[in-house]
Design goal:
CATH topology: Glutaredoxin
Number of strands: 6
CATH architecture: 3-Layer(aba) Sandwich
Pfam families: Thioredoxin_9
InterPro entries: Thioredoxin-like_sf, Thioredoxin_domain
Strand order of the largest sheet: 1-2-4-3-5-6
Protein name: Thioredoxin family protein
Domain Thioredoxin: 38-159
Order of helices and strands: EEHHHEHEEEH
Shape: globular
Structural class: alpha+beta
Radius of gyration: 15 Å
Number of helices: 5
Low-confidence stretches: none
Number of domains: 1
Largest sheet: 6 strands, mixed
Distance between the termini: 34 Å
Amino acid sequence: MNVSAQEINKKIHDEAHNKEILINTCTREGIVSFPEFKEMYDPLYAAYIPDAATMIELKKLVKKEHVKIVFGTWCSDSKVNVPNFFKVLDALQFKEKNVAIIAVDGHKKAENGLINGLNIEKVPTFIIYDKKGKELGRIVEHPKTTLEGDFLMILKKKY
C-alpha cells in the first residue's frame, strides 16, 4: 500500500457523531486548520507550559525516536491533549518528519488498515517508538502525570 496515494487530511461525515471529521493520515497544518479542532487548539497550545525540570531531563534522552499520534477531531480528550503534546514536541525541537498523525472515526477506526495492529481502544493515543520502530510505550487518552512526565518515564524505561 502506498501511503502517498492516500488523501491527506481527508474529511468524511462520521455517522457515530453525525458531523464532519478528519480521517486517516493528517498533517499538523491539516488538524490545526480543521475548524472544530482549531477552536480549542490555538488557546490550549498557547496556554500549556511544560514543566521546565522535566523538559531538561527529557531533552537529554530524546534522540531519534518516532511518535505516532492517533486521535479524533471529535474527541474532547484529543482536543485538549494533542495541542499540549505538540507544545512538548516543539519545546524538544522534535523533528516533524518523525511524527505520524492519524485521525480515526467515532468507532476508532481508520481506512485502509492504517491502524490495524495498534490496538487503539481510546483516543488520543501517543505511541513512542525507537529509531528502529520498536514501541517503547504509549500515553493513552490522558497522561498519568503530565504529557512531558509520561514521555520522560517512557524514555527512562528504555535507557
